[in-house]
C-alpha cells in the first residue's frame, strides 16, 4: 500500500494530509494557491514519497493544481457528493485526512478528466455559447429600443437579430436618416410584397431622439464585437478539431441531426476514447440523462434525470430537436410513437438518450451510423 495524500481545495488555500502505508498521518500543511505555493506542495509530496493524490472537484479551483501535479503523481479527482464525511466535527485538515483515507482504502472512483486538447476545445465551445446568449440579449434590447421609438418593423420580419433589412435600417438611423420612405427602400422586396409597401413605410415612421440613437449605436457595436469574437472562437475550434478529430467528425456527421459544430461540441466534452466510460449506460449516467431510481413501498416516487454534464446535455437536446423534425428517419418515427403515450418533453429526452448511445457506438466501433439497423444492438 503506497503513501497517499488528500487535498482539500479552496479558492485561496488548500490543505494537504499525507498518510503512510499503515494509515498514520505523517504530514499535514496549509498552502496558498499561487504557483510558487503549488511548486512547494509538489516538492513536499516528492520528499515524503507520496505516490497517489486525490482532491475534490471544487469549482474550477482544482484545475491549476491538477496541471502542476499530473506529471509526477497518480491523481484522482473525486466527486464531493460521494465522499462526504459523516456528521461531526469538521475542519479543513480533517477533510484532507478523510480524502486521503478514502483514497488509501480504494473508496474513491476517479472522475473523468479531459485531456489538454479537449479542455482547449471546451473553452472555445462554452465561450461561444455564452457569447450567443449575450448576443441574443442585445438583439432583444435592440428591438425594444426600436419599439420605444415606435418603429414597428420587427413585427413584419422573422429572426430580427440577423435580418439583413433590419441591420440596414438600424445603420441608416444611426447615420442620421429619418425619412420612412428612404428607409423603406432598404427593405427586401419579398417583405414589401408580403405586407405591402405602405404598411412597411408606416412601420418605419417613428419618433427618434438622440439618446435612442446612442443606445442603438452601442447595441450594434456590442453585437458586432460578439460576432467577431464568435468567428475567432470557431476558427480556433475548427483548427483543433480538424487536427485531432478529423475522422471522428466525419463519423458523427452521419448521425441524424449532427452537424460540424455539434460534433465539435460532443468531442470537446467526451473525447474519442470510449474506453473511459466502458459502457454506453455509464456515459448516459455521466451526462445526466439517466432517470433516477426512486422507489419506496413499490411506488415510484420520481424518475427525474440525474445531474450531469449540462453542456453535453444542451447540445444533445438541440440535436434531438433537429433529428425529430423528420418523420421519415428512425429517430423521428420513434419520437412520434413515444409522444403519443407520454409528454413531448419526456419523449424528446428518450430520443436524446438514444442519440447518445448511438454516438457512443459510432465512436467505439469507428463505423458510420447505418439507419437500416439499430446501432444500439452493437455489443460494447
Automatic annotation (TrEMBL):
InterPro entries linked: Transp_IS110-like_N (IPR002525), Transpos_IS110 (IPR047650), Transposase_20 (IPR003346)
Record-annotated Transposase IS110-like N-terminal domain positions: 5-149
An example Gene Ontology molecular-function term: DNA binding
Residues in Transposase IS116/IS110/IS902 C-terminal domain copies: 250-325
One of the GO biological process terms: DNA transposition
Transmembrane residue ranges: none
Pfam families to which the protein is assigned, alphabetical: DEDD_Tnp_IS110, Transposase_20
Name of protein: Uncharacterized protein
Species, as recorded: termite gut metagenome
Amino acid at each position: 500500500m503506497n503513501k497517499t495524500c488528500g487535498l482539500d481545495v479552496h479558492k485561496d488555500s488548500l490543505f494537504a494530509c499525507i498518510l503512510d502505508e499503515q494509515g498514520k498521518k505523517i504530514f499535514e500543511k496549509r498552502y496558498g494557491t499561487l504557483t510558487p505555493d503549488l511548486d512547494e506542495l509538489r516538492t513536499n509530496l516528492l520528499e515524503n514519497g507520496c505516490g497517489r493524490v486525490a482532491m475534490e472537484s471544487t469549482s474550477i479551483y482544482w484545475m491549476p493544481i491538477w496541471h502542476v501535479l499530473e506529471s509526477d503523481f497518480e491523481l484522482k479527482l473525486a466527486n464531493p457528493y460521494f465522499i462526504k464525511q459523516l456528521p461531526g466535527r469538521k475542519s479543513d485538515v480533517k477533510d484532507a485526512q478523510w480524502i486521503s483515507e478514502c483514497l488509501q482504502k480504494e473508496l474513491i472512483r476517479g472522475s473523468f478528466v479531459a485531456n489538454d486538447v479537449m479542455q482547449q476545445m471546451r473553452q472555445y465551445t462554452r465561450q461561444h455559447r455564452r457569447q450567443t446568449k449575450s448576443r441574443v440579449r442585445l438583439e432583444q434590447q435592440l428591438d425594444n429600443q426600436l419599439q420605444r421609438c415606435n418603429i414597428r418593423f420587427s413585427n413584419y420580419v422573422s429572426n430580427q437579430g440577423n435580418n439583413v433589412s433590419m441591420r440596414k435600417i438600424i445603420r441608416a438611423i444611426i447615420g442620421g436618416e429619418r425619412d420612412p420612405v428612404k428607409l423603406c427602400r432598404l427593405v427586401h422586396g419579398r417583405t414589401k410584397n408580403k405586407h405591402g409597401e405602405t404598411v412597411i413605410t408606416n412601420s418605419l415612421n417613428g419618433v427618434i431622439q438622440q439618446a435612442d440613437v446612442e443606445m442603438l449605436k452601442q447595441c450594434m457595436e456590442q453585437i458586432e464585437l460578439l460576432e467577431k469574437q464568435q468567428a475567432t472562437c470557431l476558427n480556433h475550434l475548427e483548427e483543433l478539431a480538424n487536427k485531432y478529430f478529423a475522422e471522428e467528425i466525419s463519423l458523427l456527421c452521419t448521425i441524424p441531426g449532427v452537424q460540424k459544430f455539434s460534433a465539435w461540441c460532443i468531442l470537446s466534452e467526451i473525447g474519442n476514447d470510449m474506453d473511459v466510460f466502458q459502457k454506453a449506460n455509464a456515459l448516459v449516467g455521466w451526462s445526466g440523462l439517466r432517470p433516477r431510481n426512486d422507489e419506496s413501498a413499490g411506488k415510484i416516487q420520481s424518475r427525474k434525470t440525474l445531474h450531469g454534464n449540462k453542456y453535453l446535455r444542451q447540445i444533445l437536446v438541440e440535436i434531438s430537436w433537429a433529428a425529430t423534425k423528420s418523420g421519415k428517419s428512425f429517430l423521428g418515427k420513434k419520437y412520434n410513437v413515444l409522444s403519443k403515450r407520454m409528454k413531448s418533453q419526456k419523449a424528446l429526452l428518450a430520443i436524446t438518450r438514444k442519440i447518445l448511445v448511438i454516438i457512443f457506438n459510432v465512436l467505439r466501433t469507428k463505423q458510420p451510423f447505418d439507419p437500416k439497423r439499430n446501432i444500439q444492438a452493437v455489443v460494447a
